[in-house]
Amino acid sequence: MTPPTPEEQVLFLRNVQRLLVEGQFTASYKFALLLAIADLCVLKGDDSGASLNLAVKDIAEQFIELYWQQCRPFQLGGQSTRLVLQQNTGRQAAVISKVIQAQHDFGGSLFKLKQSAPDLWRSLKSSVTRVVNDMPLWKLQTVGSERLDFLYDNLDVTTTTITLKPGVAFCFRAFYGLIRDLIQGAWVRFVQRLNANELGNLTDLGTFLFDRERSSLDAYKQILLDVQERQCFYCQRDLRTSVEVDHFIPWSRYPTDLGHNFVLAHPRCNNSKSDHLAAEQHLQSWAERNHSCSEELAERLRDAGLLHDSTASIRITEWAYEQVEKSHGQVWISHAAFQHLGAEWRKFLLA
Ligand SMILES: [Zn+2]
Fold first, then answer.
1. How far is the CA of 243 from the centre of ligand 1 (A)?
2. Ligand 1 centre from 228 Cα, in Å?
3. From ligand 1's centre to the CA of 318, what distance in Å?
4. How far does the centroid of ligand 1 lie from the alpha carbon of residue 234, in Å?
5. How far apart are CA 137 and CA 249, in angstroms?
6. DSSP characters for 310-347?
7. Centre of ligand 1 from the C-alpha of residue 235, in Å
8. Which one is predicted more confidently, 201 or 70?
9. 133 three-class SS
10. 39 CA distance to ligand 1 middle (Å)
């Protein structure tokens, strides 16, 4: 068995990045699962490049430990609140409810639970094992509308072990810190978004230190309504009362508030595009809009005191599409429709 080549290692990192950016996340389980696998590679793997068997119950145990910390009532300004952070877009995630109950019963101490109630600990572990088997294990490697089975084979059946493919444990071990930061950063943003109402303007330290403040986008609305003639940028249907300003290159890929990066869309179109890049036809209309309205746009943005730099916007866009091309990623067409990025995208930016 030999360790993965440098090219394979880079591809691995690209794939992890794809999971985090393109994966469809309704609960934070996938972050927990990726972190759990990374941790177990450190704990149980080696650097030979060999495949590695992981017991699902060991993954479940890592899950419980991760969520045990996150289910504590949230502290605001040093004061404990009764708020338990939401980790799912719909109902609170099942693992969370189980962990909260166990915390309640054991005064918040995981140690106490393990020590004084081994039966309950085992039963918590097996119910979390079922959740892991049911959901995140087989959904982790779905991006857009395709499978990206680079970590383990998706068997779609309940199992007691998964087998990490050759090279996977090696890469998790080699890039552990990097990957951990990636996952944690994505997880923080996810939870922050889900709990925006409760957290209000409070930004956590990570946001404070690293995320540029997102400015209010209202100022762009009137300008873009005129430029787009009150039509949705993506579906070309009329825009009525609810209109959203969309970052053409998603904020999560590159945080920029430069004027040319904005388009107006229906909330539904904007939401389904989410953190994806838009398909070639949208890229073409974006480039054409910026070209044909370049003077009007620049003048209106300047008069409104809004930052803009069309050259920089094009460079960022070019970079973003290049990355998708290199990782063979998918781009968003409409609603649930995706496709692979074709070879032609570049010509739209040259016009
Ligand atoms: Zn639309």
1. 9
2. 12
3. 24
4. 5
5. 30
6. HHHHHHHHHHHHHHHHHTT-EEEEETTEEEE--TTHHH
7. 4
8. 70
9. helix
10. 42
In angstroms, what is the span from residue 188 Cα to ligand 1's centroid?
A: 29
Q: How far apart are the first and last CA of the chain?
A: 49
Residues 194-207: what's their mean pLDDT?
66
Phi and psi at residue 320, in whole multiples of 5°? -60, -45
- The tens digit of pLDDT for each residue in 85-103 reads 888 887 778 888 888 889 8
Between the CA of 335 and the centroid of ligand 1 the distance, in Å, is 9
Both tokens of 235, joined, read 């579906």
Q: How many other C-beta atoms are found inside a 10 Å radius of the C-beta of residue 239?
A: 21
> What's the CA gap between 178 and 34, in Å, rounded?
13
**Is 70 exceeded by the pLDDT of residue 341?**
yes
Residue 347 has pLDDT above 90, yes or no: yes
- Find how far residue 183's CA is from the centre of its chain: 9
Tokens of residue 306, six digits: 């809004």
20's CB contacts (< 8 A; 6+ apart) are 34, 182, 183, 186
Closest CA to 173 of 16, 42, 36, 40: 42
Distance CA 52, CA 164 (A): 5
- The single-letter DSSP state of residue 241 is S
Q: Which two tokens stand for residue 44?
A: 């149980």
Within 13 A of 249's CA, how many CA atoms are on the CB side?
A: 23
Domain boundaries, the chain: 6-209, 218-350
Instruction: Reply yes or no on whether the pLDDT at 110 is more than 90.
Output: no
| Residues 306, 220 contacting (CB under 8 angstroms) | yes
In the chain, % helix, strand, coil (3-state, to 5) comes to: 55, 10, 35
In whole angstroms, give the CA distance from residue 41 to residue 49: 11
Q: How far, in Å, are 48, 155, 287 from residue 283 at the CA level?
A: 44, 37, 6
